[in-house]
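Posting this for the archive.
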Amino acid sequence: MKLLRISNIFWTLVLVVLLYLSITYAFISADAPYYLSIARDIFNGLIPYKDIFNIYTPAMMYLNSMIFRIFDDPGYHYFLVFQYVLILLSSGFLYLICRKLDLDKLKSAFLGLFLFIAVLSSDGTYINLEVYILLWVLLSFWFLINKQFFWTGIFLALSFFSKQYGILNFLPFFLLVGVYHGLKKRYLINFIVGAALPLLAFLVYFLLIENVSFMNLIGQLSGSGYGQSGVSSTKSIFSLIAGFKVFLLLIFPLFFLRINPFKNKIDGILIIGILVNLIPVLIKNFPHYFILTYPYIFLLMAKNYKNFDKKFLLVSNLMLVIISVLLFLRIFRYKDVYAEQLRVAEKYKNEYPVSSEVFLSGKIRYLYILNNYHNPVLKEVGYDYDFSPDEDFKKQYPVLKLE
């Protein structure tokens, strides 16, 4: 217990330092202009799928649009801090789940700290959608173990409406409802009704109120073409290691918990949850894609608390050391990027004043945020990652691209 108490104090201090440094040296990541620009457009009264071509489900964008309502001209760091609050909430709900599963306070706090640092080291310092899915899945599990199946379904649906990959969670959760509490008709009906309501609200709003064509909606959400290059291209060993590293470091301590999925059905289902949430990695092996598996990894740790011994604690602390060092190295490696982004933003203000209409192509997309530039082809192209303007496009619209 003394070792665990010291460990928790140490990792709390490390986490505070990591948060401070990651905010101080934060830069606008590749995906952030997509999500935050749509959040701004929503704040300005535009409708996704109708006025904005959008390949993602919209929950994250609507949540972030509220920051524009609360703060006048919020900077990038406001959105990053908001994401950190969500990660904190995820760690907090993991703590509550651990306590509900009879894990003591120190062990519960340790797993919460472990989760927070692991998420940060898995692109959690960049704006992404997987952080939202993590929170909704842990909330769903919290309601499931408390036999509130309607709310389990609601929050599981929100994981889908944060990113389409969230639908993968329905298989393990359907099994969890049955194994935890029995396949009682009332439980399943409540679960299904809860899961269906957000979908119904989504369809009513966009199809009936905003008059978005059903085929147009499906066409956008299918993400046609997205990920094609990730599947077809040859991945290098370095890119695979870069993507998998934190995930593998988290899996290693599980071997010290003596988990037997053939004897314990819940453990078996949680392992299924890990496996099905690895499917997106077949498309692209970005580190943040692995966050989808983290609820199940940490629930496995919490469920097997009886084997939470000194050996497991030592191994977990060693993994945390490696994970934290990797994050420190990445923060310092890119510490000058934001200053360069600000320099470029200032440079182009002379050519395109703040709030100008200009299409940004490639790595300069962060100017949608820094210079509040507006996309002139929202309805036709949106913030498509892969769209490459041709000469005809350039004649019709102003285009800015860093060579």
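Confidence is low (pLDDT under 50) at residues 227-234. The beta strands are 359-361, 399-401.
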